Structures are given as C-alpha cells and as structure tokens.
Amino acid sequence: MSQDLPRADELGLIGCHVCGLVCRDTGAEGAHCPRCHSALHRRKQASYSRTLALLLAAFMLYIPANVLPIMRTASVGDIDDNTILSGVIELWVKGSPDLAVIVFTASIVVPMLKFLALGLLLWSSRHATPWARRQRAKLYRLVELIGYWSMLDVFVVALLTALVRFGVLSLVEPLPGVVFFGLTVILTMFASMSFDPRLIWDGRESDD
C-alpha cells in the first residue's frame, strides 16, 4: 500500500538535511533552506561509494586501535602498556566490574554494532531489496543517534588512565592506539552522515 503513495520529488518537495524543514522544490540551482539557509540537495551525492569507503577505512583503523596499546603507565620499578581489552580485564580483576562493562560496551560493542548496521544498510541498498524497509530506516536513525555520542568512545580512553591509582612518582602517557581509535570514531561518524536513507525506500543501487 505504501508503494502507491507519491514520492517527495513527485510532489515537488525537498527536505533540508540540516534542520529537516520540508521546502518547495523550485528546481533552481543553489537553492537554500528558508529557515537555516543551508544548501538544498535532492540527494547526497555518491552516497553509497562514500559511505562504503569511509566504513572500510574505519574498520581498517579499528584493528590497530585494539591491537596497539593505548596508554603506558609507569611507576617506580614498573612499566605497563595497556590495550583496550587488557584494560577491561584489569578493571574487572581489580574490582571495578561496572567500569569494565562501560569500557567494553563503549569501546568494543558499540563500534562493532555500528560496523554491522552500516554494512547491512549498504548491502541491502546495493541489492535493492524490499526486505524490512521500515525496520532498516529505524536502524539508520538509531545509528545516527548513536553517532551523537560516538565521542564517548574516546572519553573512555581517559577512564583507562584511572585504571590504577598511582602515587606521586607515577606517569601516564598515551600511545599510538589512542590515535587509531579516535580516527575510527571520526570515520564512522562521517560514514553514517554520508549514507542517504532514501536509498532504502527507492530501491536504487546507488547515486554515484
């Protein structure tokens, strides 16, 4: 039944990507939203290819982000390098299971779910499948909502610096894993912003 409903372009309407205002599509080049004055676009250009490239780059950076140590803790007679996972284990062993769960969820579970969700959206849009379009649209909105809190993953790194309580002669310094982790967060945010959810509804493979 929903397939018989007219589309926005058939009604001469266009939505602002910034404030969400539905505007009349005049067809003029360089049209702007009357409310926020942002440029109006019927489609996100090269949505599929851009999202895929950003997602693959983020996944490639996510591997060293978890393999390389993210911080070095040094005290008298002891130097210890911690990855995200080893930090989670140490938090659990040292009696902070709640903090360990938060770190594990924000730094490992959430990024992996974003990879899987965006990958599913890309695959289903590429193959023009009509399967669960409404549910996929909700999934995209969920990924977009999580994107607003993606920097929590980076803030979690700061929590790991409190992994052990040190004395005066102690030192905590970041290691390369932090850089890879931060880049992963940024690229996944850009990937979700690049995806055009209208690909879910119109069944087109891509607009590149």
Account of the protein in words:
The structure is a single chain. With 208 residues, this protein is mainly alpha-helical. It has 2 domains: 1-42, no CATH class; 46-202. It is built from 8 helices and 5 strands; from the N terminus they run αββαββααααβαα. The chain has helices at 8-11, 47-67, 84-93, 97-126, 133-147, 152-160, 176-194, 198-202; strands at 13-15, 22-24, 71-75, 78-82, 171-174. It has a 3-stranded antiparallel sheet. A hairpin with a 2-residue loop joins β3 (71-75) and β4. The protein starts with 7 loop residues before the first helix and ends in a 6-residue tail after the last helix.
Give the helix/strand layout.
Blueprint: H1 8-11, E1 13-15, E2 22-24, H2 47-67, E3 71-75, E4 78-82, H3 84-93, H4 97-126, H5 133-147, H6 152-160, E5 171-174, H7 176-194, H8 198-202
Antiparallel strand pairs: 1-2, 3-4, 3-5
Helix pairs in contact: 2-4, 2-7, 3-4, 4-5, 4-6, 4-7, 5-7
Quick description:
Strand 1 (13-15) and strand 2 form a beta hairpin. This protein has 208 residues and is mainly α.
Helix content bin: 40-55%
Overall pLDDT confidence: 77
Number of helices: 8
Kindly give the count of domains: 2
Shape: elongated
What is the number of E strands?
5
Beta content comes to 5-15%
Could you tell me the radius of gyration in angstroms? 22 Å
Low-confidence runs of at least 5 consecutive residues: 164-169, 204-208
Order of helices and strands: HEEHEEHHHHEHH
Class by helix and strand content? mainly alpha
Give the neighbour order of strands across the main sheet: 4-3-5
Distance between the termini: 29 Å
Please outline the major beta sheet. Answer: 3 strands, antiparallel
